[in-house]
């Protein structure tokens, strides 16, 4: 049973920053695509950013491009999401999820992965951005 420990969420003012962490109990962690997703009240869950296995190629949703940075530390089985210049519309529950993928996918392909292709999900961490 895969377990994720997500942390780093909280309340921040507009323009502020937060760093989310996702620690996973996965063997061969480097061969998993890890994605960050978010779900705001009344809205569908959406992809925020993904990082490929092995080479660490990255994808960002247009809404966060230039403000968020995803990275991974395979030695610590952890993926990070640095969120800068936060906006009230970034308010949501943020989830990390994993997908086994030995081949390092391109950024374009990462952006096309359906949510259903991610097989394990964390519990989520709340991010609230006040105006």
Give your account of this protein's structure.
It is a single chain. The protein has one helix and eleven strands. It has 131 residues and is mainly beta. The strands form two sheets. Strands 2, 4, 5, 6, 9, 10 and 11 form a seven-stranded mixed beta sheet that branches. Strands 1-3-8-7 form a four-stranded antiparallel beta sheet, with no helix packed on it. The chain has one helix at 107-112, and strands at 4-7, 10-13, 18-24, 32-39, 46-51, 58-60, 68-73, 78-83, 92-100, 120-121, 125-130.
Stretches with pLDDT under 50, minimum 5 residues: none
Regarding quaternary structure, what we see is: single chain
> Percent range for helical residues?
under 10%
**Shape label:** globular
Quote the beta fraction.
Answer: over 45%
Radius of gyration: 14 Å
What's the mean pLDDT score?
Answer: 96
> Structural class of the helices, strands and pairings?
mainly beta
Largest sheet: 7 strands, mixed
Number of helices: 1
The SSE order reads EEEEEEEEEHEE
Termini separation comes to 39 Å
Number of strands: 11
Characteristics:
131 residues, 7-stranded mixed β-sheet, 4-stranded antiparallel β-sheet, globular, mainly beta, 1 helix
